[in-house]
Amino acid sequence: MGGKLPRVLAEARNAIRAMVPRGASVLVACSGGADSLALAAAAAFLHRKGEIRAGALIVDHGMQEGSNRVAQRAAEQCRTLGLDPVLVLEVQVAGGSEQAARSARYEAFEQGLRQTGSDHVLLGHTLDDQAEQVLLGLGRGSGTLSLAGMPAARGPYLRPLLSLSRTEIEEICRHESLAYWEDPTNTDPRYLRNRVRHELMPVLRAVLGDSVPAALARTAALARADAQYLDGLAETALEDAVLPVAADRPAMALTLGLERLRAMPGPLRSRVLRLAVARLGAPVPDFERLNALDALVCGSVSAGPVQLEGPVYATRVAGARLPAGARAHLRLDATALPHPGS
């Protein structure tokens, strides 16, 4: 440590101040990499000043040889910075996939929150991570929310460093004399994110300029604001479209008025349908299934069923089975798919 305070370190400290109420308790999720150690250094400064209470949580996934040594080294640096408490939690990753590792990691975060009574977990994702997330979302073609990238805040999880680049993060580590670990899996081409980082992003920088990660991160911020506003409208519209369920219908069922759905603008209706499906516990439908569901609503020849992921299907129902005063409705049931003709 020492020397003139880098602008980026001041920005990192102020970003935490802007997200964490004074006196709150946080855990820094620290892998030992540059981003999480830079975040730990910024949080530790505020901890020493008495502005917040900051500890650290290191998750050992056990997926690489020597992972315990990496975890202990990260814990030592966090303790040297003055963070307290510093927890090291070992997790079991079923199947060894990236998604399984993420699930195990977040289970450890929840355990850490319970164990310490902390208010938040701070995550070290950067502007570059956000830019890569936008490109991954674009590749999936799954709509505005996918382009919105990672939220700065979701529940107890906060990402204060989304405005700082990876280069700036490494500058913080140099100023604070932090020896960060470079995860060898970050160059493994088997992971799509790595191919985006090491193959696609350099091409975009060469063609569009070095400011492209910042531009993609701005796109994420704008898309998230739009998506949150539209999702708020969709929540209200869904409540307005829900009709009473007959006593003999399954508890896990939604009945939506077709007239109300058809009167909605298409972008709003698609969000309402996604929310309805999610409310029944199924994954958000993909583009093709959502189109089939929308066609069912808007009067396709077939009255269904449209099978969604999980035990959820949709049928268009008419006639005597309708609630009083309704001419047609959409029924989404979280039950087994009926046999044809039933």
- The multimeric state of the shown protein is single chain
Second-tier CATH architecture of the largest domain: 3-Layer(aba) Sandwich
**Largest sheet geometry:** 6 strands, mixed
**How many alpha or pi helices?**
12
CATH-defined superfamily of the largest domain = HUPs
Taken from the alpha-carbon principal axes, the silhouette is elongated
Helix content: 40-55%
Structural class: alpha/beta
CATH topology category name of the largest domain: Rossmann fold
- Strand content is 5-15%
Compose a concise summary of this entry.
It contains twelve helices and eleven strands.
Characteristics:
alpha/beta; tRNA(Ile)-lysidine synthase; five-stranded antiparallel β-sheet; 2 domains; 12 helices; six-stranded mixed β-sheet; Rossmann fold; disordered C terminus; elongated; 342 residues
